[in-house]
Amino acid sequence: MTAPMIKRFVAALLLILFTVAPGQAVEIKEVVSPKGIRAWLVQDDFVPLISLRFSFKGGSAQDPKGKDGLANLMTGLFDEGAGDFNSDSFQEQLDDVGAEMSFNADDDRINGSMRMLADKRDAAVDLLALAVTQPRFDQAPTDRIRQQIVAGIKASERDPNTIAGRKFAEALYGDHPYARRSDGTEQSLGTITRDDLVSFHKRNFARDNLIVGVVGSISPEDLAPLLDKVFGDLPEKAQLEPVSDAKLGFGQTTRFDYVLPQTSISMVYPGVRRQDPDFFPAYIMNHILGGGTFSSRIYNEVREKRGLAYSAGSNLINRDHMAALMVSTATRADRANETLQILKTEIARMAKEGPTAEELAEAKKYLVGSYAVNNLDSSSAVASTLLGLQDENLGRDYIDKRADLINAVTLEQVKAVAGKLLETDPAVLIVGPPQS
User: pTM, whole model, 2 decimals?
Assistant: First the structure.
């Protein structure tokens, strides 16, 4: 069996086996390494596997002007050589230990993960430590990954929804870093040098902007020294550029005329920050309005009653420097105006009247019951949840408290937040054939 075949086999095995033990309660332990690195651990010895996820605050919002795409390019290079291993030898080492390693960047953070066999953890962690602390950023793999990204950018330039989304981001965010293209442009990527990658890595990878979540067959005593092995040699403090909160450009419509069989519609309203006292009332209101998919008002009016779209709904968006509620759907081009009016009618009704007591009760029941399925159904999902809880400063007891927090929300609170958010004139994006 060749190395790529072995890697694919291990990946398939991990997907099959990486599940939380049936009926096992989620006990979150805080582990502190000798160098003071903190991690949240859910020990699960049901299968001999370990999932480690971590995140550094920073992300694409830290891309210097003119260097758009720097964070994204960097994350494609961590498994392309580190320490004494060049790209090919590093990949061979990963294959030999049966580990999977990945990195990605979003607007606010650099995310990394590794899934490994418990009996190969030391060798796997050694490779992760090299990737995190000693990436090589060699010219050949950098050029290759850069070319792959540029090819994707060129392909997306023919996609009307991608083009329109970029125009909408510029209108919505103005000159805020969130308006930039996280994958960069052919021009900006061409200016990025190895020195840029080294400098960005040094400024962003530090111990004070790091969070870690671990799930699997490892004890707190064994995890502590591994944390130092991976992260202990990083700088103590990150050197991040300050990023202001985004001021969203509500009350404007961005149209992108393009001959398509469907018209896409997006509407952006103010949202609620995760630590805001109104978060759970807004969370429940969004579920009733459009977040509940098959049970929501928008889905019922647009899809079930009229068959205007395959899907229609809403979701709350939370980033470090903005919060929004987005309503979206795609419909037949000749029914776009009708669909838009239905959305506006339902949103206005929610803003004016709020939900019913019955809708509130059903939403609470679903949101309480679905949490484990959506967030705790596998070791990888639990590890991601551990990161999210830390990132949002929710505390290790949040999972136990969550149901009570939802059930404590009153009908009056939901009505109040509905009026507060949905009476705003939204930012609207319409992509499709010109409308008469």
Answer: 0.90
